[in-house]
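Technical note accompanying the year-one report. For the benefit of new consortium partners, we illustrate the data format agreed upon in the data management plan: each record pairs a sequence with a structure-token string. No post-processing was applied to the example shown here.
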Amino acid sequence: MTAGFGDASMVVRAAISAGLAWWIASVLLHSDAASLAPAGAVLATQTTPFATARKSLQRAAGILFGFLLGVAATASIGTNTVSVALVVLVGMFAGRAMKLGSQMHQIALTAVLVMGAATTFGYGSARLEDNVVGVLVGTCVGLALPAPGFTRRAGEELARLNRQMAALLTEIARGLAEDEWAARTGDWVRRARSLSKELDAVRRAVREAEDAIRWSPRGRFARPRLDRLAEATQCLDHVGHQVRGITRGLYNLTFREGRPPALHWAQQEEPLAPRRADAPAGLDGVLAALAAMLGDLADVHVREDAPSPEVRARLAGLLGEAETGFLRTALAQSPAYADWRVLCTAGILEDARKMLHELDPSIGPHKAAFG
């Protein structure tokens, strides 16, 4: 992750935390298991100060509960195959019930280590003490040293997805100008679906950036940019769904006048099947303008400041070009397209027809779901 966005502060924080935890455990506390302290510090040092504190508390709670569980099991039923299995079972369920997240294994792990030690109480106390030292040091160092540039990383992730979506729209626009575009619609649908799934990575980057500034003294300075990125992520999510709809619509046009086998044309002989419909004239120009907008927005997302008046004017010009092309394309299909009631009715019926296709057990795309 550090190499991904060129910031080594996470590694520095982990190294400093480990060194301090070892010094405190070995020199100040004279612990017999001092190596557990730096291990706890490294594991507790997370990517953001807020996540560091949360993970540290979860780890400490898991170790404490596991220590008590291990001591109680050893004192009551001893150390044997059955007791170890029961302790692991109870510990894992307790970790889930306590919502310890990635640290839910700490209860079972600590309990088993305590049960396996020669001097159960002494080892358990040392493990608890040194891990608490480690997580406390990791938390303090994580809060004191600056966190990596997560806002910058979120902008880079969002810009990358914008460019990929712009590249797909550009390819579709160029393909529609060719005569044999129908053969490529299946690949366009798959790529659009893949880009929609990659949006989850952008959402995670934005959430990490929000955690990074939550306890930061300079968080208020990064808040305006992060708010823009969060809103841009939501916008790109909707755009991704619409791009998927466009690619699926073009794909449907290759199915005999836009009708996938919901009407069972595939069961008829090929000479009787209607010919496929043509793509809307002018759609390539609309998609090309939209692709240019996404490309410009990618450059905006990697900048810290808000878009300049020049950039906003260019985006407005591209949007006007796309809207003009869209109106020409829409009205060329039918004058009734300008009536929103006609659009609503057509959209409802089209979605219903697509459902017929999706749920067709004999020749639909999900035949395996029906056995």
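Partners are asked to follow this layout when depositing records. The chain has three domains: 2-144, 150-333, 335-371.
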